[in-house]
Amino acid sequence: MTKTSKKFHAEPADEPVSEHDLEAQAKKLDQWVHTQLAHLSPGLSPISLSLAFMDWAMHLGQSPGQQMLLMKEFLENANRNLLAAAPETDARFSDETWAQYPYHVMKSLFKAQSDMVQKATQVEGMSDHHRQMVDFFTRQWLDALSPSNWPLTNPNVLHKGVDTKGESLLKGWQNYLKDLENTLSNTSLQPDATLKPLPYVVGKDVAITPGKVIYSNHLIELIHYTPTTAKVFAEPVLIVPSCIMKYYILDLSPHNSMVNYLVSQGHSVFMISWRNPDSNDRNLSLEDYLRMGVMEAMTATRKASGSDRIHAIGYCLGGTFLSIVAAIHDHDHRNDKPRRGKAAPKAASLHPDDLPELASVCLLAAQTDFSEPGALGIFIDDDQLKTLREGMAEKGYMSGKNMAGAFQFLNARELVWSQKTRRYLLGEDEISMDMMSWNADHTRLPERMHNEYLIQFFLHDALAEGHYKFEGRGIALMDIKAPLFVVGTLRDHVSPWKSVYKIHLLTDTDTTFVLVAGGHNAGIISEPGHPRRSFQMDHAAKGHAWMDPDEWAAKAPSHDGSWWPAMHDYLKHHSSKQVAVSSLPKTKSLGDAPGNYILMRYAD
Q1: What is the pairing mode between strands 237-240 and 269-274?
Q2: Are residues 177 and 287 in the same domain?
Q3: φ and ψ of 361, to 5 deg
Q4: Which of 35, 280, 398, 534 would disulfide-bridge 445, Cβ 3.0–4.6 Å?
Q5: Are 385 and 244 in a shared domain?
Q6: What are the tens digits of pLDDT across the range 417-450?
Q7: How far is CA 2 from the centre of its chain?
Q8: How far is residue 49's CA from residue 61's CA, in Å, rounded to a whole number?
Q9: H or E segment at 504?
Q10: Whether 380 and 451 share a structural domain
Q11: Are 217 and 296 spatial neighbours (Cβ–Cβ below 8 Å)?
């Protein structure tokens, strides 16, 4: 007993765990569990998803009358679809073989069932957010179950398999194995240097409009494109692309490059190229993107062009950034005006003194009011953002691959199921396109900036409701005095056009609104000569009254072709004169376009 006791007392006592360490370990454990659960629900919060479907199930469960009406309508629709010979509007069933038995029966029952299930999601009493989530995920589920996605229920797959003696099915299986191998090898642990080359090489096949990098900081490179005309408009054009994507969506191949088009029309064009961030950039803020990004680019453009006035074009999130900077730019001018006969005390300027005047502001598929964010709204609530923050806290950034997957998820019918059907069941190779190559060139977002963006804009709609602050001072879009040229796209899953249109509520400046056929990317990249392009355009003078978007769409004149010439005419109208290219100030080149930041790629 004595020896045992002596031995026991000789051992050093364990260090007590501090309360702070215990809390940190508990928090780390919770975050790990939440992250693992999020992996099972495409990065979304399983709690939010569960609450939404519980809300729906409980309300539908106590509505037996609505259930009976839904079943009655299902039977009527199924019978009508079986007997009717109406033209097929769903591209998945457009082939004439779907009109044959038994595929006509499968298609008719599926369409009737889809209609019934989608109507069943619209139950009175549910919260709007839960209704939107249930409706969205129900559509995803229905799209996955479509008979067009399965080999034994798709007549095109069976007929092609017979016609090719099984070669199409073999090729499809090979495509699947190839994609699986690429997916397994392309992990976040993969060295960036070993990434598979893009189908269209940046600087060789795309982003080849000649130019020079004339300014650089930690966040941006600024490119000045080489003029191709003897004279250019005195007011240069600065393009602010979205940092969610690589800038060369606006400088793809020469025939569909917006940059190349503007240069050919006599504009002196500058472009921001955002740095692709890594974990060391986790603390870059939204204000950093506004000041180091947009404002410093504007100042550098003024210095390089020698013009005190510039045109600015912002695309997607770049347009949101630009609208804030435009409001900041005019903020001091309005607040310095006398109030009730007394001069207002002059406040410190929120922007650099050498910021140029804005001759016009063009916003392309850019939201400023986030109260109706469309399908993106399903990702936005307190618990969803908590899950997202926990995922970003591990790395210090929002993964480009995850972000691309989320956008693909929004249009899964075309970007997932139809594509996989062609590739795996029909054995067809993907048609290589510059935009598809660009779409695979992912970008990241720094943790702090992305958190601030989602919380302030998507969750609290601070910009539209007057709560947004820049360096502690309130900013509102009503301060914008520059004329606006605003573009929305008809089938936009990222920036719904009616949401973009609501800038009419937030400003009273001269506004030209354009509604373009197409989606978020294809509608903007609408070069002259592209078939089946059209747009509507109308103008609202300064001090305009409100017009409902549906009423606007019913009245606005329609035009065939690309909207790019209309943008050029607008820029020309708001420019003062043309100057000889040789008279432009010379600036020191930091290298050739497309620069270095655009070439930064990561596995995730």
Answers
A1: parallel
A2: no
A3: -130, 120
A4: 398
A5: yes
A6: 888 888 889 888 877 788 888 888 889 999 999 9
A7: 74
A8: 18
A9: helix 503-506
A10: yes
A11: yes
